[in-house]
Amino acid sequence: MYTLVIYDITDDALRLRIAEACKEFGLVRIQKSAFLGKIDSQRRKSLRIRLKEILGSNPGNIQIFLICEADMRFREMIGEPTGYEEEGIMFL
Predict the structure, then answer these.
(1) Integer CA distances (angstroms), 51 to 17, 25, 35, in order
(2) Continuous H helices in 1-92
(3) pLDDT in tens, 55-68
(4) How far is CA 52 from the centre of its chain?
(5) Which of 34, 46, 49, 69 holds its CA 20 to 30 A away from the CA of 79?
(6) CB atoms within 10 A of CB 18
(7) Residues whose CB falls within 8 Å of the CB of residue 77, separated by 6 or more in sequence, listed in order
(8) Could you count the other beta carbons within 10 Å of the beta carbon of residue 25?
(9) Helices and strands counted in the chain (H then E)
């Protein structure tokens, strides 16, 4: 199961901490405020707790989506490549 994390956070330091947490949990950046990767349900739960702790009462929004393998096959990219790493994630 893939996990997609997207966020809208205006504070630079807070946004950096969110990005670092996503990387620590094995997700890779696919856009400026979007991370994707395969993690199991226990790590996803831990990530959710970590992100909630980081955000605290600060303004912002974090959304976590679960995407199954079958649905990932329908992913389409429109426009120029972002230049962000996507190592370890294969799209067919």
Answers:
(1) 9, 11, 13
(2) 12-24, 41-55, 69-72
(3) 999 999 999 999 99
(4) 14
(5) 69
(6) 22
(7) none
(8) 19
(9) 3, 4
pTM attached to this predicted model? 0.86
- Distance between CA 14 and CA 29 in Å, rounded? 16
Measured CA to CA, the distance from residue 29 to residue 19 in angstroms comes to 8
Tokens 């199991």 correspond to: 40
Other C-beta atoms closer than 10 Å to the C-beta of 10 total: 9
**Angle at the Cα of 74 from the Cα atoms of 71 and 37, rounded to 5 degrees:** 60
pLDDT of 91 over the 50 cut? no
Q: What pLDDT score was predicted for residue 90?
A: 47
pLDDT digits (tens, 9 = 90+) for 31-40: 999 999 999 9
User: What is the dotted CATH code of the domain comprising 2-72?
Assistant: 3.30.70.240
CB 20 within 8 A of CB 36: no
Domains of the chain, residue spans: 2-72
